[in-house]
Amino acid sequence: MNTKDHACEIHARLKDRYPAPAPALDWTDAWELLVATVLAAQCTDERVNKVTPVLFARWPDIASLAEADVTEIEAVVRSTGFFRNKAKNLKAAARRIMEIYGGEVPRTMAELITLGGVARKTANIVLSNAFGVHEGIAVDTHVKRLAFRLGLTANTDPVRIEKDLMPLFPREAWGEINHFLVYFGREVCPARSPRCAACKLDDICPKHGVKK
Quick check: is 140 catalytic? Predict the structure, then answer.
């Protein structure tokens, strides 16, 4: 089986397992998803989902966060880790959206990655989930691990992994591929002690990096 056919089979099996994938983060619009995704770096989605209601109750829109005292933002997001950088980036992103993009979250990769704290992963998540725009595949720790373990890439750099994955899947599936691999990575194939005996990909997985 060549790599593209291998990827197609993986996609089909995971789609059967997750027929209606969606982000584990709570959000109602593009801005809330952007904020939640920035906060989720090195933090669990569960923790972020406890913090964002407090954040959005305090600063309910982009304009209010753009004018917020950064030390007050730090206090609210502290439990998500790296809180100083995250607070600084969120305020900077809000200010840029207000000053450059007329108060609306931009809808292109080129514009999104100019915002504080937003690299390709976050931009891809916002574009695909909030706007239905598929510019690429968001590569987080789960996608990085499973793409290698499943034999879809030999690279370790997220940008190179994304470039390897994009030709393997139909463009309209790029958003859901991230969801599939994130959920499957959490439920079945964690970094340590993957549950190979319970894995519906076991018969087609080369198990790269898995200790025999």
Answer: yes
Q: What is the pLDDT of residue 211?
A: 81
Catalytic residue among 5, 69, 88, 140: 140
CA pseudo-torsion sign 159, 92, 22, 51 = positive
The CATH number linked to 181 is: 1.10.1670.10
Cα–Cα distance for residue pair 169/157, rounded to 1 Å: 19
Average pLDDT value for residue range 52-56 = 98
Is 211 part of a structural domain of the chain? no
163 a catalytic residue: no
Does 62 share its domain with 117? yes
Which residues constitute the domain of residue 153? Answer: 3-21+137-204
In the chain, the number of structural domains is: 2
What CA–CA distance (Å, rounded) separates 195 from 88? Answer: 39
pLDDT tens profile 74-105: 999 999 999 999 999 999 999 999 999 999 99
Catalytic, out of 86, 91, 121, 144: 121
What is the value of pTM for the model shown?
0.94
